[in-house]
Design goal:
Helix content is about 30%, strand content about 20%. The chain has 5 helices and 9 strands, in the order H-E-H-E-E-E-H-E-E-E-E-E-H-H. The strands form 2 sheets. A 7-stranded antiparallel beta sheet has the order 2-3-4-6-7-8-9, with helices on one face. Strands 1-5 form a two-stranded antiparallel sheet. Strand 6 and strand 7 form a beta hairpin. The chain is elongated.
Length: about 290
């Protein structure tokens, strides 16, 4: 009874918070939620926005200057090199060092439940076999970090360093369930809602993720077929929605899985961010 009430209230939140998805597998547009048990780290992106001369004071870096920066042609690569490039490279060196200090996972955390991980750039695929069925969960870490500093920037306020928001990756994810005798796979488009329903002592824990859409799709097809009927859960009967959530939980996609997925996604995103900074530094310095 409590579980149904919690999901009914949580589904009410989904009616006002769920965003329109792009029909590709996997979906990479993030939704905002508060950090839970996932691995987090201090928010250090865009350091100029947190300094006294950053966005909080209304300052924006100048893209054009009246001073002409003379290029240096000492490098054998034949590319343009300016004083600005040198300053940019020095900044990136400091940024990379700081991010590596904050990196909590040198290796990617393991998922419980026998999930096997495959990586393809920023895309991750988790798979497991259970009772003759194959369950695959796919997500992409691109654009999975919600912007947590907008309110302070608009009000011209600056948080103390110890109160800075922490980064948590909350990607949309797609669950595909394949049965041996079925011609099509059952596909769930899932996300982390913007608002997380709280629960008091003695109450059953609410779901920290939600189903946005359900559809039958050709097995292994990476494109969502618009010609296949898609069930949107915004106006779905609560009893049917409960059964769909229980169907996923029976196959290992539950709150514990969602927490671990956020931890994994946060670690992958941070690794990719550091790698991007290193590649950007090499590009700027022609090294």
């Amino acid at each position: 009874m409590l579980k149904s009430v919690a999901r009914a209230v949580g589904a009410g939140i989904r009616l006002s918070a769920a965003a329109t998805s792009t029909r590709t597998l996997p979906l990479s547009c993030p939704t905002l939620r508060s950090p839970s048990a996932a691995t987090t780290r201090p928010f250090t992106r865009s350091l100029w926005m947190m300094s006294s001369s950053g966005a909080s004071s209304g300052y924006r870096p100048k893209l054009l200057t009246t001073k002409v920066l003379k290029p240096s042609l000492s490098c054998g690569c034949g590319g343009l090199h300016t004083e600005g490039d040198k300053a940019f490279g020095d900044f990136l060196s400091d940024e990379i060092k700081e991010e590596k200090k904050l990196q909590k996972n040198k290796t990617l955390p393991k998922m419980s439940g026998g999930w096997q991980l495959e990586m393809n750039g920023t895309e991750a695929k988790l798979s497991r076999d259970i009772g003759g069925e194959k369950v695959t969960v796919t997500f992409n870490v691109n654009n999975s970090i919600p912007p947590n500093f907008e309110e302070e920037a608009e009000q011209g306020q600056q948080k103390p360093e110890e109160d800075e928001p922490e980064i948590v990756s909350t990607p949309n994810f797609v669950v595909e369930v394949v049965k041996p005798s079925a011609k099509h796979s059952l596909v769930f488009d899932c996300h982390f809602p913007e608002d997380e329903m709280g629960h008091g002592e003695g109450e059953e824990e609410s779901d920290i993720f939600a189903i946005r859409e359900v559809s039958f799709q050709p097995e292994g097809d990476t494109d969502w077929k618009e010609t296949s009927y898609t069930l949107n859960t915004d106006s779905l009967d609560w009893a049917l929605y409960d059964h769909l959530m229980d169907f996923l939980a029976d196959r290992g996609v539950d709150n514990t899985f969602a927490d671990e997925l956020m931890e994994l996604s946060t670690a992958v995103e941070h690794q990719e961010y550091i790698k991007f900074l290193e590649d950007l530094q090499g590009f700027v310095k022609c090294s």
